[in-house]
Write a structure and sequence with these properties.
This is Ala-tRNA(Pro) deacylase. By secondary structure, the chain is α/β, with parallel strands linked by helices. It contains 5 helices and 10 strands; from the N terminus they run H-E-H-E-E-E-H-E-H-E-E-E-H-E-E. A hairpin with a 5-residue loop joins strand 7 and strand 8. The radius of gyration is 14 Å and the shape is globular.
Length: 156
């Protein structure tokens, strides 16, 4: 498996340019960053949240931890981490746990942490545990156009 079909189709339709970077099998964003020699601040990880009966994708640097209390302060107390089974259902064409930071093509609202906005280039999961996508700043901005932004993470 490489890039998920849903993500691949969306990137093609939107004409978003990227490079595929194969890497050894990893099971966490921190290990992926190490394996690819990519700064953790430039690897966007995606965390699926449940909100008001729907879902929200939080995008933050792999070197950061989500501050759920900050998201609750902004969006209300009805925010929680989605269950693994919910994530697997939403991202059915992705490997378990390999959620791309591209919620729009999966019909999800997205919120991007402000800290990732300072990076000149961004890497995202492709939908498996062996491929990253490398996007320039402008391409990542197009991928996350219309997303909400805010501060909801802290550096490890």
């Amino acid at each position: 498996m490489t890039i998920s079909p849903t993500l691949h189709k969306y990137l093609a339709v939107e004409n978003i340019e990227y490079d595929e970077i194969p890497h050894v099998l990893t099971m966490s964003s921190a290990l992926t960053a190490q394996a690819c020699h990519v700064p953790g601040d430039r690897l966007a990880k995606a965390i699926v949240l449940r909100r008001n009966g729907g879902y929200l994708l939080a995008v933050l640097p792999a070197s950061h931890h989500l501050r759920l209390t900050d998201l609750k302060a902004r969006f209300g107390d009805d925010i929680a981490l989605a269950a693994e089974s919910e994530i697997d259902r939403l991202f059915a064409d992705c490997a378990h746990g390999a959620v791309p930071a591209a919620g729009i093509c999966y019909g999800l609202d997205v919120i991007v942490d402000d800290s990732i906005q300072t990076q000149p280039e961004i890497y995202i999961e492709a939908g498996d545990h062996e491929t990253l996508l490398h996007l320039g700043r402008a391409q990542f901005d197009r991928l996350t156009a219309g997303s909400l932004h805010g501060r909801f993470s802290t550096h490890d």
